[in-house]
């Protein structure tokens, strides 16, 4: 980019290397830029870090041969950008400069041309310097920030790591604090989000920061430490407020257009970045609005030193004039001496005053529409002030109330209810009211009336004494600022009332109607239909105006008091000012504003009443009193006539008076509270004291309520307010309150997170995968990743391909209003992006690159296509993958490679890689082959880790697999040891089988109650195979419904299956048995599917075995069952499944894995031309006639099948397998990955090829390498800590 030419005397050739040269120009690159090593680059990088110099890595210098002075004319952060500028010089200047006669002429022409280019390129620029643009580019490059993240400022800072100081730069952006240092080849990066800050403090030049995950940082700034600290506090406040306003989008996006000031031309010479100046203006504007009670839209435009003439004292008072688009305000230098608010729309003229004795004082006179003159003098730049006022007046827009037809004529505005329901004052009370009214009239004559009155300490004194009932509406509207909102929105209230009346079935309206009878019930105005109707209209209208707040309890109480003294529309704007300006966030969900001020009160008690704080903190009293006191401004705990006095002061002082009154009440009851032993006793002490506060100037007729007549008077409200001002008024300033609010805003939001986590952990603590501390850490990382979601999405838009981040519809079920439990759980629901990040960062299956397992798992778990997973689903999905349940993990891996999760298009793409495009993501979601056309129904048919019955079939699968091992001659104990290797090769010889024709293994059978009883009834003829077993154990098993059996070849008939071999098999028959066993593996899924049955109860879940499987085998098929079988897997999908397993195991495949792969290929080949009429192992005999009696275990008996026919069946099957082996002999996996079949024979070789989950599980469980890889449990705590460390250090991710 072109820059303002900068003169350079020292070129420092050791720090720069020349890249391009010409007679008058040279293009240089910073030494070491883009180089990974080298001593020179290391020294230059260290020099830049220590000396706080961060120049652009590329620059162009203009120099003449005979001159020692050079000029920097262009800089850039990339080579392409600087080369573009160099090419422009070649085309436009090189030839022109060569024709000039003198070097001086060359230099002058070059500098003028560059200045012109700089001005042309920056005419529409916001005014950032070239150096700051370079810093911004460096910031985004180092920390990989998205383009939308705006840098605010940078500071030279030192960060201490392991007691070693690291000199570098502190980058402060809208959402992050970042630190970067490069010292002798050691690079340090730190990234901290403002939303995760828990504590911020400054001591001298050191800024201390603590995050929510208990990480502590301290940065030492030699210069501008105060500015940096204030900036961090402000941005943290903005981040937390954004989190309160919109928890789903916690990223701050500062809109500078709102802060475009009319005096911006005067700031162009400032060296500070534009965004920093805007944020400073934002902070000042907020203070400006709070002090003068102005609308939220007002932005301070300028501040000018001036004096104001006060007619009541006949003298000038020094201060400052502050301008905004709609107001001219004055504030004295002496605190609370005098202030004035003049609406721009009321200014009739602005004139200079150059006559009289003060003609040299630069005076101006502003006359309002009420002919009230305001004289200002000693104005530093009077012409500028008059010009600004004139400009503002030309832009002023005065809203006009338009005439319109009423939609509903059934209602009319209610006037102040005190006019209808008048208070019957005694003669003495009426006299006091008239005396107060006379004092206010005298004050109005001296200080003015209305918005433009002179606001002095005399006003405070009058308010403390009490405002007369007739003036309350006027005074409240002015000092609350509600008058400004009303005048800027004429007719809005009528619109809201009529629109709200048309809304049906509204939760807020139901809440309002429920609370109406409880709104100031002691006053007759709210026992009448008019008062109740007016209150309902105001509350419903505000709920429509501010849906984020809607309606909150306590709003009805304060609104009812407003309606007593104000008409209906004014009461509405008073309520709006209370909720939006005076007590922000008080009436939102969780009354977060009141809880923040609860923390503020707690700290104030610790500061001012330190001897009492520890005792109150132990009792928990402050947490109990603050909400009820603050939400209703003491109206719910102090009598109505006394609370009016506090309300008068509240509209002038704001929240300050609430803290003052609370401190004073606690101090007066100090001794009694010390003696309290529990919170109930302490609350009773405070309750009795507050009920006894009375107002002698506002005594109403005696109440009929006996409880009120029995109250003991404790103190007058006038004394309470006076003592509170005297003791705490000076120390408790608005600035102090805001500082404490910022601090406790962070702590309160953090406490919300902690409470939510405890509630959710309690709900899921019994999950089978994670411990309590692991659940807490998982919730923490979910919250952190969700907060960073917007930045991640912005980066993915730039760097990721659309097909790698498929879009999912998001329609999560929203929690109903008031459903705090649903809101808690919803806060930890994650969408696809967050889940994919967690899966790839925390689980060992991230190693799988051929198939996106994370995407498949998300779709499988999110069967209803809501686009989000709740925390329970996350636990089961991530928990299973990280657990040591190797059988379930292998089952899940099998399911994730089935259609429609793994579609045909993805299989083809994996087999023949091609460039990805956007359509691939759409193809990947289509259902294929096995299921219906609706992909959602197809996916729902697959079991998910979050299903309660995900492993419901495992007992049958494992038992059937064990029996198949037994048939192959493998000991039952071998199956229990997952790392022992049974030999399942087709080439195994007869020596692998046992020498004895029978082998014994004990297993237990669970039977239904009726058959268990039947088995007991036949127990008289029971013969035991092992007479040495003691009688007691048999009795115990019988009582449990479990019966012992001896597993032998002859026992097969007990299961309803025929004998498969002669008692004394020959070698050929043993080989046939081995082939038969492999064939029978293909039938395990049939066996398991037929024996599906819900377990009776949790106590029996681990006691199922093959005996019960045999019983269930003979039960009639339940056609009404809605459970669907898992489909078999095609060859292409299986090859990707095997490749995924190899990748998870680290791309290592041993001989046993190769042999297992070959076996499964043979199994699939054996299924190619299998006719339905051919009898399988599970179909040989499914039970005899209904007249047969069950055996001693309750299983049906059956006769054996004919050995000759069985032998012929398997001889034919053996021949088929041998032919299939010849066809698949060309396939090789010696490279470590299965080689896909060639395209020429793929269709014929894989057509009809399939393998069941039973075959797959039974085979892979025999491979120690696979079992060892899947049985290893992942420590989720270590993975989360590693991820957090990566985020803090800006390290690259795993995917």
UniProtKB/TrEMBL annotation:
Residues 792-801 have a biased composition (Polar residues). Residues 920-937 have a biased composition (Acidic residues). Residues 792-820, 907-945, 1178-1205, 1225-1244 are annotated as: Disordered. Gene3D superfamilies: EF-hand (1.10.238.10), Pleckstrin-homology domain (PH domain)/Phosphotyrosine-binding domain (PTB) (2.30.29.30), putative rabgap domain of human tbc1 domain family member 14 like domains (1.10.8.270), Ypt/Rab-GAP domain of gyp1p, domain 3 (1.10.472.80). Pfam families: GRAM (PF02893), RabGAP-TBC (PF00566). Keywords: GTPase activation, Repeat. GO terms for biological process: system process. Residues 1196-1205 have a biased composition (Low complexity). Residues 466-654 form the Rab-GAP TBC domain. One of its GO terms (molecular function) is GTPase activator activity. This is TBC1 domain family member 9. It comes from Drosophila lebanonensis (Fruit fly).
